[in-house]
Every structure is written in structure tokens, then in C-alpha cells.
Design brief:
CATH topology: Heat Shock Protein 90
Pfam families: HATPase_c_2 (PF13581)
Radius of gyration: 14 Å
Strand content: 15-25%
Distance between the termini: 19 Å
Protein name: ATP-binding protein
Number of domains: 1
Order of helices and strands: HHEHHEEHEE
Largest sheet: 5 strands, antiparallel
Structural class: alpha+beta
Keywords: ATP-binding, Kinase, Nucleotide-binding, Serine/threonine-protein kinase, Transferase
Number of strands: 5
Shape: globular
Low-confidence stretches: none
InterPro entries: Anti-sigma-factor_SerPK, HATPase_C_sf, HATPase_dom
Number of helices: 5
Strand order of the largest sheet: 1-2-3-5-4
Mean pLDDT: 81
Organism: [Actinomadura] parvosata subsp. kistnae
Length: 158
């Protein structure tokens, strides 16, 4: 549930005005980006970068939930965007816009992420359900260079 819809809208408006393409170039305060290859161990790397970054920002309590969501987003990118034309890597972005943290995973596929009805017996198909459950909200934005950024927003209580 979104606790403060106005603050959430403001955070998303900021990211959209700046643009994910610009944010992914890195070097901004309270922003971390990390390129990831299309391979299974990129999921672990993304979790580690997420935990380390959030702990560095003093957001220890958020690190486990955010790492779980990042795992799902990177897994989806590795699984579904691997054969998309263009870039051959995924990009992880973490951005602190108090009182929020925005996590985004960019990939070269233009395919829209579509949540499935979760099947709790199956070993897959629950990723976006987990993202929706643990984050305040999630969505995706097309990138000017092609592909998309799938993002999740968290409320960060210092």
C-alpha cells in the first residue's frame, strides 16, 4: 500500500522528468548504477549491490525486501530480455529520493512486463507478484535508446 501518494507521485515525477536514460549514466548523488551481464549470477550481484548501497545510505531495514525485489526484476530481465536486439547487458539503478528509494532494472527488450496470476505450486510466474507485494508500487518506462526500465518504489524510513 502507498502510505503517502503525493510523495510517491512526486518521486516518480522527478524520475520521469530526469528520465531513466539520463539516470542510468550514473554519477548523480544518491544514485548507484551497475551493469550486469545476461547470466544467472547477475542476480546475486544485484542483491549484493542493493544491500551494500542501502546499508551505505543507512537504510538497513529496507535492504532485505529491496534485495528480494531486485532479484525478481533481474531474473525477469535475464529470462525474458536475453535475446532482444541491441545492448547485451542489464543495468541496475538505485536512487534515493527521500523519503523513497527507487529500484530499476533496465533491459534491451521492448516487451511489456505482464503480471501473471500467481501459481504457488509452480517454480516460476510469481516474480511481479512478489515485486507488487513488497514495494509501494511498481511499473515500467520505455527508454529512449530502446528497451525499458522496470522499477519498484519503496518508502525508506530513516
Amino acid at each position: 500500500m502507498v502510505g503517502d501518494p503525493l510523495a510517491t507521485a512526486d518521486c516518480l515525477q522527478i524520475t520521469r522528468e530526469v528520465g531513466f536514460d539520463h539516470l542510468l549514466t550514473g554519477g548523480k548523488p544518491y544514485t548507484t548504477s551497475c551493469p550486469l551481464p545476461f547470466q544467472a549470477d547477475s542476480v546475486k550481484t544485484a542483491r549484493d549491490v542493493t544491500r551494500r548501497t542501502l546499508r551505505g545510505w543507512g537504510l538497513h531495514d529496507l535492504s532485505d525486501d529491496a534485495a528480494l525485489v531486485v532479484s525478481e526484476l533481474v531474473t525477469n530481465a535475464v529470462r525474458y530480455a536475453m535475446y532482444a536486439a541491441g545492448r547485451r547487458e542489464i543495468e541496475l539503478l538505485l536512487m534515493r529520493v527521500a523519503p523513497h528509494v527507487l529500484l530499476a532494472v533496465a533491459d534491451p527488450s521492448d516487451e511489456v512486463p505482464r503480471p501473471k496470476e500467481p501459481d504457488f505450486i509452480s517454480e516460476n510466474g510469481r516474480g511481479l507478484y512478489i515485486v507488487e507485494t513488497y514495494s509501494q508500487c511498481w511499473g515500467w518506462d520505455p527508454l529512449a535508446r530502446g528497451g525499458k526500465a522496470v522499477w519498484a518504489l519503496f518508502r525508506a524510513d530513516d
